[in-house]
Amino acid sequence: xxxxxxxxxxxxxxxxxxxxxxxxxxxxxxxxxxxxxxxxxxxxxxxxxxxxxxxxxxxxxxxxxxxxxxxxxxxxxxxxxxxxxxxxxxxxxxxxxxxxxxxxxxxxxxxxxxxxxxxxxxxxxxxxxxxxxxxxxxxxxxxxxxxxxxxxxxxxxxxxxxxxxxxxxxxxxxxxxxxxxxxxxxxxxxxxxxxxxxxxxxxxxxxxxxxxxxxxxxxxxxxxxxxxxxxxxxxxxxxxxxxxxxxxxxxxxxxxxxx
Length: 259
Ligand SMILES: Cc1cc2nc3c(=O)[nH]c(=O)nc-3n(C[C@H](O)[C@H](O)[C@H](O)COP(=O)(O)O)c2cc1C
Ligand code: SF4
Ligand code: SF4
Hints:
The strands form 3 sheets. The protein has a 5-stranded parallel beta sheet. It has a domain of about 160 residues: Flavodoxin domain (Rossmann fold, 3-Layer(aba) Sandwich). The two termini are about 25 Å apart. Helix content is about 35%, strand content about 15%. By secondary structure, the chain is α/β, with parallel strands linked by helices. It has 9 helices and 9 strands. About 40% of the residues are buried. The structure holds flavin mononucleotide and iron/sulfur cluster (2 copies). Flavin mononucleotide binds next to helix 1 and strand 4. The site of one iron/sulfur cluster has 15 residues, from helix 8.
């Protein structure tokens, strides 16, 4: 079966998982969701379809929601989803995805949380390197199992805990969309005007008329700009100051640009 995997990734965890499956499964291509949205491509003729994305506020990232709502999948026979996350099982990304699919008379056949490393720096610092190594080891082991199940079209559902409170947090977050970047600041004394923050932004929310980033208030809070800055010049208020930036160790920042 021809397989198309649609991914969204700010700091590489979900791209790593998508690349792993592309290298493991037969006849598989991977596609960046923000790139397809920009090109206005919302159709696939694949029979096996996967969505890989970070969990955002207990649910789907805004762009994934928007993309799947518009995606036409006339040949879909098997649909799977993987949510990369810091803390698995808390949230409802698969319930939300299924609700969108149900409106198209489709349903998810398999779903998994894949614990990697949290990039949500506003909550806590990035995990220590030794912890990251352990998470990577377990993630790879789980991905091998996931790949074997996907290749056999196996059904799989997963726990989703705290669905009602998760929905409330998620909906409140989406309602604040115009304000999501309001606390982002750039320390111009550190900024070297390299433009990486602008390149990584999946929605063109960064302009640099004077070299340093200025946010345009249609952010999806992926945190790519904050993590990619080589000088740690970008912060969200004071809370992220001094916290370790993170990009998946097997992903080059350039693989995330224009993606
Ligand atoms: C706005 C935002 C909200 C997040 N919410 C959650 C969450 O509810 N649960 C969780 O486990 N991780 C959460 N995370 C962490 C990411 O899901 C996790 O780091 C993910 O693997 C990042 O994937 P990426 O590197 O492909 O962008 C959140 C991250 C961001 C930026
Ligand atoms: S990535 Fe950092 S150093 Fe480069 S332009 Fe953006 S804020 Fe400045
Ligand atoms: S401004 Fe930064 S956090 Fe917001 S969408 Fe762009 S890269 Fe992501």
